[in-house]
Specification:
It is built from one helix and nine strands, in the order H-E-E-E-E-E-E-E-E-E. With about 230 residues, the chain is of the alpha+beta class.
């Protein structure tokens, strides 16, 4: 019987055992490659989702902070602008400013506004409130007295951000401060003492395969037009 070593390269094949071993090794290598790229893909997806969540949270906070800095703007000292309402849970704030002399409903904008001593113009009364049931942060204009003191608003409301999650450790969306010494203000009747608002926002983004990532962003807003 001819030994394996005596075979000519052109006439000898592979045994079944050799083929099975080769296929097994190929399967292991292929599995490792697939696993490596799958892990890379998941990692990249998670990183992208985290970056998107962080950017969304930051954009939302910066937008609110920009408007909050106008709270209390009252050049003529006759509009009574300021913080009009806060909620105990820190999920709602309503504020006003004499920043637009264009009446509601008119097509003109307020690129170069003139104060008129009132807060009944475009975008002069703004409410932010967190709808926990739908996880939506809403921006509302022209809220009326029918929802004053309530955890909602009857104004012209539009979603500002969706997929907003409760903040870690129970931190409220809005923390109202008089200074760095006294405790946060939670009573609406003390809203006149507020000089700083800390906004803390947590946003969730999908990260593939039913997974999600959350990111939190916070900013401290000094109300420069209040207490002057």
């Amino acid at each position: 019987m001819m030994d394996r070593t005596d075979c000519q390269a052109a006439s000898c094949g592979f045994t079944v055992v050799e083929l099975l071993v080769a296929l097994g090794m190929a399967a292991v290598v292929f599995g490792l490659i697939v696993s490596f790229f799958a892990n890379m893909s998941r990692s990249t997806t998670t990183q992208n989702a985290g970056a998107a969540a962080q950017q969304t949270a930051r954009a939302g906070v910066d937008f609110m902070a920009q408007e909050l800095r106008l709270a209390g703007l009252d050049p003529l000292k006759s509009a009574g602008a300021g913080i009009e309402e806060i909620s105990f849970a820190g999920t709602k704030i309503r504020f006003s400013s004499d920043s637009c002399d264009v009446e509601i409903g008119k097509s003109e904008t307020c690129e170069n506004p003139e104060p008129d001593g009132k807060v009944d113009g475009k975008n002069e009364r703004v409410t932010y409130w967190y709808d926990a049931g739908s996880r939506v942060l809403r921006r509302c204009l022209y809220e009326t007295s029918s929802t004053f003191g309530k955890e909602d608003s009857d104004g012209s409301c539009m979603p500002l951000l969706e997929q907003v999650e409760p903040n870690p450790s129970g931190t409220p969306l809005f923390t109202f401060l008089e200074d760095d010494i006294n405790p946060p203000i939670t009573n609406n009747s003390d809203r006149g003492k507020i000089r700083t608002v800390v906004i803390t926002l947590t946003v969730q983004e999908p990260a593939g395969r039913s997974k999600t990532v959350t990111r939190t962003y916070s900013s401290r807003v000094r109300l420069r037009n209040i207490g002057l």
